[in-house]
Amino acid sequence: PGYVERLKKLSEKDKQALLYGNWDIFDGQYFTEWKRDIHVISPFEIPQHWRRYFVMDYGLDMLAGYWIAVDPFDNAYVYREVYQSGLIISEAARRIREMTDEEIYANIAPPDLWNRRNDTGRSAADIFAQHGVYLARATNNRVQGWYDLKEWLHPVIDEQGMKTAGIKFFRNCTEIIKCIPLLQFDDKN
Known about the structure:
Elements: H1 2-8, H2 12-20, H3 36-39, E1 40-41, E2 51-59, E3 62-70, E4 76-84, H4 89-99, E5 106-109, H5 124-130, E6 135-137, H6 142-153, E7 156-157, E8 163-164, E9 167-170, H7 174-179
Parallel strand pairs: 1-9, 2-5, 4-9, 5-6
Antiparallel strand pairs: 2-3, 3-4, 7-8
Helix pairs in contact: 4-5
């Protein structure tokens, strides 16, 4: 009993970790809004009328892509992911097409995929398009993007008195669930 009382008097982060076993919080963490019990949910069948997006970042070192459905109330659900290294662009496009069996409103990618390569004069976006994945250019403002994600992650109370958030992740999206709580502040920016 004395040990538990001592744990209850610790800082909130230490108390969460040592008393409740919540290891998703630490000093320097950027997305302190992240709560596994709010943001990670069991998969469910997504209604056909929900708008769906595919968002990605590509490099030979890693293709990180996420399928996101948005309900009529503008809540987002990350329901599928691809996280694979060593794929050239044509292989990455094939993998994306293999994993996509629904209508996608937009395939969104960062602006660097439109940079022309010196050797071919073509961009990664051109090569993706040649292989059937047509990309829409996202903005590249990392700071504003992180602010936006903080808003999406911010817990709120819904009309039934339950904690929820504007974005949730199906538990099968293991890489993004692992990565988001690990992101840290940069002392310089």
